[in-house]
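Q: My labmate handed me this sequence with no annotations at all. I'd like to see what the chain might look like in three dimensions before we decide whether it's worth expressing. Could you predict it?
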Amino acid sequence: MTDAETNLLREYLTNADVPYPGCGYNLRGLPGAQCPECGDEIKLQIGLAEPRLAANIAGLIGLAAGGGFNGLLLIYIFIERVFLSAFIGSDLTFLRINVGGFCVEGFALFLWLRYWRHIRRQPSEQRWLLVGSCWLLTLANIVVFTVCTQ
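A: Here is what I predict for the chain of 150 residues:
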């Protein structure tokens, strides 16, 4: 951060009670550009008053729902096998479908989180199209599970 930015930050925080987002420390009268509590560098910047996060969160929920569906069923198979010693041949298809679904949904979730900021910067129509894709992936996951495990 430049000296001018540090001076602006210091001037702003002279009489303002502002908690640091990282640790909650009150930055009033900050002497430099680092949080005295946690040592993180503080950066003066302009941000959105209301970040556009609805689409990002909706996509995250869609992918987490699909991954959670398969994850819970995998836990069920584990409990059934380990504690009840009940594992029959048809359970192998059940296991494959859920491991596959869990891996696909998990990878999609990883990509969603990895490109979170990039997604947030997209135009509204594109963001909601991506959200629809997340929910369609979860729907496809449930349809494949239903069809293949009958």
